[in-house]
Amino acid sequence: MSDSKKTLDEYKRKPSDTKEIDASKKVRIGIIGTGWIADAHAASYLKMPDVTLVAGADLVPGKAEAFFKKHGVKNVKLYPSHKEMLDAEELDAVSVCTYNATHAECTIYALEKGVNVLLEKPMCVTLEEAVEIVRAEKKSGKIVSVGFQPRFNENMKLIKKMVEKGELGEIYYIQTGGGRRRGIPTPFGTSFIQKDTAGLGALGDIGCYSLDMVLNAIGYPKPLTVTGYKSDFFGKSPEYSNKPEYVDIFGVDDFAAAFVRLEGGIIIDFRIAWAMHPDTTGDTLIYGKKAALRIPSTDCWNGEVGGAMTLYHDVGGVQTETTIPILSTEHDLFDMKIRSFLDAVKDGGPSPVPTSQIIYNQAIIDGISKSAELGKEIEIVIPEI
Fold first, then answer.
1. Owning domain of residue 185
2. Closest by Cα among 118, 141, 124 to 31
3. How many angstroms separate the CA atoms of 175 and 112, rounded?
4. Neighbours of 267 (CB within 10 A)
5. Angle (deg, nearest 10), helices 355-374 and 208-217
């Protein structure tokens, strides 16, 4: 039996015991920002027997009230800002579901109030903001978990396990990314596409996911340099935009690409798209000195793999391809994200998706954006925290 087959068979054996939830110890939760992603947070929290939704905040008058009414949540306190909510309520944790440009502000204020944070992706907009979040987290003694639910997918776990077990040998090159032929997220209004609210386009929305898939698998080595490119041809074009009336206010990237150097001599060849003419930017390929792994792309980057993966390796001197069938994931990924965060809050950590890793993800995204604007390769410098 090959090593890869052993790894796959071993991985399929799931633990028989599951952690029992102590429903007598309620976690008091507030939700900051009640837009569409907050719906998934609320739905998951309401499934958890040890959660009480206590408060919500939104800048838009009446929005929070309508949100909690829709979810059937009563006796919840509503506030026009995150600061007023955090000043008035005794909370154990909050979900930060605001637009990208306010992620840092809301997270840092919550930490200063001694409140744990489940922070939706992307972590923020700039590396400088990410540094301030990590500093606030360390000072507070609380935890921040960043919203990368694809990590809980069984296929993503298998990719990481294969790398950790040495199935591929030493990793030296990765091709990754993803995207959509037409998928600029304007059905949810303009907060995704305006510079002052989103800060980032496809880079932040789905680029952070594809980067996390491979960076998490290889242990999140530190990024060193990046050469980045970004464009907005589709978002700015009345011919291709799915909302022509938004063309004049479109202020972010709808396509980005980069060449990233990491510690350990690893290279990432990356591209991501909200809109393009081809149906894919290509499959993800992880090159190792012992073997390589192909991870099929998806139509819309959503935390899944696009089909059976392929391991390219030599067996007895013969070039061989081993098909790795799709593994099913027993629970909803979003529910698993919420549950892992709640367990960390109740047990005192560690964070399921720690900022110590995601700051590297943010550094790459920020580096791509800055390199594209400067038109040259830049060094990624992350301050000591």
1. 150-331+362-379
2. 118
3. 39
4. 15
5. 130
Nearest to 190 by CA among 245, 231, 147, 239: 245
- Domain match, 224 and 283 both: yes
> What is the helix (H) or strand (E) element at residue 131, kind and residue range?
helix 127-140
Q: Do 64 and 170 sit in the same domain of this protein?
A: no
HSE of 14 in the Cβ direction (CA atoms, 13 Å)? 10
Name the pLDDT band for 45 (thresholds 50, 70, 90).
Answer: very high
Residue 180 near residue 274 (C-beta atoms within 8 A): yes
Average pLDDT of the segment spanning 282-310: 91
195 with 87, same domain: the answer is no
Q: Which residues of 318-327 are buried (b: 16+ CB within 10 A; e: fewer)?
A: eeeebebeeb
Tokens of 103: 């992620």
Number of neighbouring beta carbons within 10 Å of residue 282: 14
Q: Which residues of 27-63 are buried (b: 16+ CB within 10 A; e: fewer)?
A: bbbbbbbbbebbebbbebbeebebbebbbbbbeeeeb
Q: pLDDT (tens digit, 9 = 90+) per residue, 196-241?
A: 999 999 999 999 999 999 999 999 999 999 999 999 999 999 999 8
pLDDT digits (tens, 9 = 90+) for 326-353: 999 999 999 999 999 999 999 998 999 9
- Which two tokens mark 189? 């209004």
Q: How far apart are CA 209 and CA 242, in angstroms?
A: 23
Q: Half-sphere exposure (CA, 13 Å, Cβ side) for 368?
A: 31
Structure tokens at 368: 């791509």
Q: Read off the pLDDT of residues 297-330 as tens digits, 9 standing for 90 and up.
A: 988 776 679 999 999 999 999 999 999 999 999 9
In Å, how far are 45, 113, 119, 145, 146 from 85, measured between CA atoms? 19, 11, 17, 20, 21
Q: Are both 139 and 210 inside the same structural domain?
A: no
Q: Is 10 within a domain?
A: no
Query: Residue 304 has which token pair?
Result: 């899944």
Q: Is 234 left (phi over 0), alpha (psi -120 to 50) or beta?
A: alpha
